[in-house]
Amino acid sequence: MTIMMNSSQVSYFTLTAYLDSGALKYLYFTVVAFLYIVIVTVNVLLIVVICVNRSLHEPMYMFLCSLFVNELYGSTGLFPFLLLQILSDVHTVSAPLCFLQIFCVHTYGTAELANLAVMSYDRYLAICFPLQYHTRMSPCKVSMLIVLTWFSSFLGITLLISLSAPLQLCGNIINKVYCDNYSVVKLACSDTTVNNICGLISTSLTTISSVTLILYTYMRILKVCFSGSKQTRQKAISTCTPHLASLLNYSCSAFFEIAQSRLNMKHVPNMVRIFLSLYWLICPPLCNPLLYGLSLTKIRIIYKGLILSKGSWKSLKRLRW
């Protein structure tokens, strides 16, 4: 007999994607803990550097700060949970914690794309309208764009979870190493038409609006580069390269996650499926701060000032004030 239950009455979910690793679980725990420490360290360091140094209180670095906060947010939604599950012999998660993780993980993904879209708009104004940049990108507008980025992300995911919570479920088995919304929806034995339509609308609005803005801004940037001077092209390349790399990394990770969730992956090795599930929650938070820290000249100068001698520290203080 099929047991039907309301998702609000399910006390726990079972995660079946974990391997029986035996004594190797301590090695896996060490590797994952090291990755989390590195992610937290590099992101926090960049956030502190941007906030402390007045020379970095510019729109581009404010948007970067928002991006790094999101990397910390998404990583914290995964890694502590993942570390506990690696050491555990029974891979279960309570229903409230599962829905909390769904909220954190999906908000991170939406906010990541929105942040990248806003950053592309900022680069468009800086390259195409350099003389009017500070007028068009005022501190008030920067604050408004950052608030809009986070508010829209939280609003969309809250709607999805509020629709998933009342679903009537026929089981509590999730074939992943963490909770996600679509895995819970697939457990439903009640009609999920409304949930699917609202999820499609919410995802489409978020994705299409962000992708359209990114494509439009880069088309205009390319037009200016082809018709502008060599100095303009060099400026565009130096400021847009890390952003394009971040965008490509995120696009690949989002594609992996969609393929993992929507396609039949039964014939794919379990380790590959785990890698595809975790890529978008590990690689962007790890690569983005390293990418921007190494690519942007001002941040490189401040990094050198932090690790060099007392004389260099005086130079850093002059740069700060």
Automatic annotation (TrEMBL):
This is Olfactory receptor. It is a multi-pass membrane protein. Residues 42-292 form the G-protein coupled receptors family 1 profile domain. GO terms for cellular component: plasma membrane. InterPro entries: GPCR1_Superfamily_Member (IPR052921), GPCR_Rhodpsn (IPR000276), GPCR_Rhodpsn_7TM (IPR017452), Olfact_rcpt (IPR000725). The lineage of its organism: Eukaryota, Metazoa, Chordata, Craniata, Vertebrata. It comes from Maylandia zebra. One of its GO terms (molecular function) is olfactory receptor activity. The chain crosses the membrane at residues 26-49, 61-87, 99-121, 142-163, 200-219, 240-259, 271-294. It is found in: Cell membrane. It holds the Pfam family 7tm_4. Belongs to the G-protein coupled receptor 1 family. Keywords: Cell membrane, Disulfide bond, G-protein coupled receptor, Glycoprotein, Membrane, Olfaction, Receptor, Sensory transduction, Transducer, Transmembrane, Transmembrane helix.
